[in-house]
Amino acid sequence: MSAGTTTAIRLLPLTAMVAIAWQFASPARADDAATCAAVDKMVLGNNETAPYVVDEITRAEVATYDCAARTAAFSWTVLANQVDLQDNWRDMLAANFRNGLCARPGLAAVVNAGWEISATWTTEDGQTYSTVATCP
Prior knowledge:
The chain is α+β, with helices and mostly antiparallel strands and 136 residues long. It has a single domain, classed as GMP Synthetase, Chain A, domain 3, CATH 3.30.300.250. Helices cover 43% and strands 23% of the residues. The chain has helices at 3-11, 13-22, 32-49, 89-102, 105-112; strands at 52-55, 58-60, 64-66, 71-78, 116-123, 128-132. Strands 1, 2, 3, 4, 5 and 6 form a six-stranded mixed beta sheet that branches. A hairpin with a 4-residue loop joins strand 5 and strand 6. Helix 2 runs parallel beside helix 4 (89-102). The protein is globular. It starts with a helix and ends with a strand.
């Protein structure tokens, strides 16, 4: 296994962490105030210890949200340069983020209710990649 493959595989648990946190969010058709309260709790819980080390090459940063706009944004710093990552690192992270959220009915319902849940990863050399979750 190449160094790039190993690095890309280590990045996969990142979105699982967000998905676990989102399990407490209310379903899409629930009251917006209740959904916002769940998002508030999840983001504030994340931010109590942010930034924090997720694994040997990843640091979670402060998350943000806006209930009126129905958005939440998560970000991570990848403690490696882009050249050290597998060529398809962006595709792998986007797919893992989307699949982690959409596999859980409550999370998919929040996304399908119009909440924009985004993720951004920034490498040490400043390369940034962002994605927004969409669920079928």
